[in-house]
């Protein structure tokens, strides 16, 4: 379970666009048509490989409801990547993207990689937002873009992995200060200079320094 | 050379001073943990999630995934500190438990005459017993609902242990008096005043009448004492680090019992108005108790501290001059001439949150801390701490409760920055956004309240933007417990504590053990 890097992601967007379903599809490879409302924040994690390196993605899935907005906002900081999700069958969720993006830009670190996701691509017959519109919005705001389906799993892997690739490249270019935890990147335990043993107390025990690693 | 001699002398002296300690005690570090670090069970966090929850940079507010796992879909939220300790040292627990009356031969044949006759006509007795059991079956159980908040310090061990076991101690201590608590019969309900007619109490006119409420209070007091004793015993075989405060709410027999040993706080909100349900125990609020203890047992100060309080720390230059002081008998101040003894460090020193006992600890009640000593000294802290709680009761049947009436129980991380009424207002505001039947209603409110105290990270510090004031960097834990479930469900239930039946508790010995002064009890090492 050792990894070279840990990237912290945050998933944001209007309520009901499928944020929790995207996470579940990515971490558990399953789809749950009826999902409880996310109240605060939920976490998921999965290991991926980029450039021969093990990378752990720690994903924070947030509540989309307006009433939880101030809490959600407080989680932007400390994320290396964000998935900004809208529902291609609901025009209003697309219209709200500007607000979400302003929010994210204002409260996150400036290097955060943002992936725009048009979800529910399986519901072609009910589509309200053309793929070209998503592409245009992404181009205009300098985002990566994909349409996904949490139901059929189409492009879900790619969405998470392509975001990680972008972050990884930024690390290679030296854009990210990987020693600053607030950037949402941690170096894996075996790579850090001092690592006081992982043993003891059921996984959570042992390590003293800096909250440990997920 | 001299220093080496001094070292030898010191170690010999140290050895002598430590003599009362049990010999060859294993070092705590060698022992196995009693419980590994964890978060409350109802949060259902995986090991991975437990680690993410300890993110000091983002300080995620954790809420139960399935709010209806908590009794009455009560709300809960917690957040870790801003970096003062690697782990969240708060803990919480909630459960619903039941005690039942042990098999017995009904009220009528508990007297000695019948017991003696058991050999002769046991068959008849059994018949009678069965009849009685059937008659009172529904009421031979006593259900209670429990919530607990534990704020740990100097480690997570004591708080985790208390959150895992205190409710069982409460159940056991209540079970010890189940014969007196149960049954609550239909007769008591339908014919007020008839309760005292049966039972052997009438044959002992001299015995004092003890109400069921006081039996519950006694059980709660005993359970706190037992919890601390258990930690004291088991720390010899397990590693149980630190200590913790305890704030417990028990809903039973139509009443709410608020049990407090520490500086967590319970506030009841009814019709929008905040009613404090506990008092904070701090070195400042407990000054006179602590000073009295030092007055009675001066050796506890190890000749290093003075029990008196002065308006400021005194120095050599103050010798022979006048100063103001107060001791355990005083709330006001009086003059005295400064002597050599007055130059020692004060037993209680510091203001507000910085106030410490023996320059070491900022809380005065709770569990654990059995090995805590003054830094670089043999001076023990524990004798000044006590597990004895203060209990407040609230009648849940006198009035109807609405969906916006609730009880807040929270650790000092919340109350350090939010006033009682403000906390109620934040919750009330959050409640308006959810339908009364929405299971997420109280959880969302709890989250909102914790968010209000945690604030947001601005620059380098956590601040509350709404009021532009510093936020709490401490661990924060909060329950929001709706009151209408319990109040209204018990309006028609037989298992309630009403005036009519209180007199039915019989022949309870008056020397309720828990009344004993906790001071001397905890003085013996």
Automatic annotation (TrEMBL), chain A:
One of its GO terms (biological process) is vesicle-mediated transport. GO terms for cellular component: acrosomal vesicle; endoplasmic reticulum membrane; Golgi apparatus; Golgi membrane. InterPro entries: P-loop_NTPase, Rab_GTPases_membrane_traffic, Small_GTP-bd, Small_GTPase. Its main location: cytoplasm. It is found in: Cytoplasmic vesicle, Secretory vesicle, Acrosome; Endoplasmic reticulum membrane; Golgi apparatus membrane. It holds the Pfam family Ras. Residues 187-214 are annotated as: Disordered. It comes from the Eukaryota. Residues 198-214 have a biased composition (Gly residues). It is a lipid-anchor. One of its GO terms (molecular function) is GTPase activity. Keywords: ER-Golgi transport, Golgi apparatus, GTP-binding, Lipoprotein, Membrane, Nucleotide-binding, Prenylation, Protein transport, Transport. NCBIfam families: small_GTP. PANTHER family: DRAB11-RELATED. Belongs to the small GTPase superfamily. Rab family. This is Ras-related protein Rab-2A. The lineage of its organism: Eukaryota, Metazoa, Chordata, Cephalochordata, Leptocardii.
Automatic annotation (TrEMBL), chain B:
It holds the Pfam family PP2C. InterPro entries: PP2C (IPR015655), PP2C_BS (IPR000222), PPM-type-like_dom_sf (IPR036457), PPM-type_phosphatase-like_dom (IPR001932). Residues 103-122 have a biased composition (Low complexity). Residues 510-525 have a biased composition (Acidic residues). PROSITE patterns: PPM_1, PPM_2. Residues 83-137, 187-207, 490-525 are annotated as: Disordered. CDD domains: PP2Cc. One of its GO terms (cellular component) is mitochondrion. Belongs to the PP2C family. This is Protein phosphatase 1H-like. It comes from Branchiostoma floridae. The gene is LOC118415990.
